[in-house]
Amino acid sequence: MSNKKSGIKDIIDFCIPIVIAVALALCLRTFVFANAVVPTGSMLNTIQEGDRIIASRLAYNNNDPERYDIILFHYPDNEKEIYVKRIIGLPGETVQIVNGVVYVTKTDGKTIQLDDSFITTGTPYGDFGPYEVPEDSYFMLGDNRNNSKDSRYWKNTYVKRDKIIGKVKFRYYPSIGKVE
Fold it and tell me: Looking at the 3D structure of the chain, how many domains does it have?
């Protein structure tokens, strides 16, 4: 009888750490981190097609999203799809693209030309806008401007704040490193 009790105790002692580890991993994935596989080259060269990335779900708990943040979000035209893009326009701003150059008129009325130094996949082209970003919404562009399905082409042009999953922080496969 004591051998049977000992065997059951051994099984329980073996299973408890596994159950705790699985529960902890599920909690972290649900409340702290989100991961995704990038299916296209729309964010080249910052993020490669096939990269596996991690986003912080906590990044915007106490802070507002900022221009140039790379975020994971629910695609406005089909919320079942998850997209990754860079924030270009903030709430209340106006975004216009002239000959591929992005201009933003900030809420104070000042117009700035955006820094596009992270774009390395050819010279962007085209004229788009102006887009007036509603409150609680963001205008998104892919870094690979000539090959990105982004705010310029969506039926529902803007990403609402509550549809942001998190700020992309890290790439873990096939290469490892911080994403900026």
Answer: 2
Q: Which residues are catalytic?
A: 42, 85
With a cut of 80, say whether residue 75 has pLDDT above it. yes
| Pairing assessment for the beta strands 82-89 and 137-141 based on DSSP bridges | antiparallel
Q: Please state the pTM of the whole predicted model.
A: 0.88
**Other CB atoms closer than 10 Å to residue 69's CB: what's the count?**
19
27 with 41, same domain: the answer is no
Same domain (yes/no): 17, 99: no
Same domain, yes or no: 59 and 81:
yes
Parent domain of 25: 1-31
pLDDT tens string 80-110:
999 999 999 999 999 999 988 999 999 999 9
Secondary structure tally for the chain: helices H, strands E: 1, 12
Share of the chain above pLDDT 70, in %: 96
